[in-house]
Design goal:
The protein has 119 residues and is mostly helical. It contains three helices and no strands.
Length: 119
């Protein structure tokens, strides 16, 4: 009997330790879940802010297509500032606008190739 009581005590002790470990794991999992929810909410908020900033940065941009760099010569910004005034007239604009940056396309132009027609 004494031996069975000792074995039973060992099993009870082992069961208590197992229950404590399971409880600790469950508590840790609950903390991770709440932390994940907070981080997900913050990520959504930050993504909204980034989207808003991107939209605001594009709001005042103007893309002019078809102006060659040879037309603008060396002063692309000055040429782009004068172009709308020349095309639409000064009366169209209340204030002068400022060109912060003007650049050409990044693609290099290839020399013209003669047209070849197979006979």
């Amino acid at each position: 009997m004494d031996r069975m009581t000792q074995r039973l005590d060992k099993h009870v002790e082992w069961l208590d330790q197992s229950e404590r470990r399971v409880s600790e794991v469950e508590d840790g999992q609950a903390e991770l879940s709440t932390g994940h929810a907070k981080l997900s909410k913050e990520l959504g908020s930050l993504q909204t802010k980034v989207d808003d900033l991107e939209a605001r940065s594009r709001r005042n941009n103007l893309r002019i297509v078809g102006v060659t760099e040879s037309t603008a010569k060396d002063n692309m910004e000055g040429f782009i500032e004068c172009l709308p005034l020349q095309l639409l007239g000064r009366a169209t604009f209340f204030d002068l606008f400022v060109v912060e940056r003007a650049r050409g396309s990044l693609v290099t132009r290839l020399p013209p190739v003669p047209l070849r027609v197979p006979l």
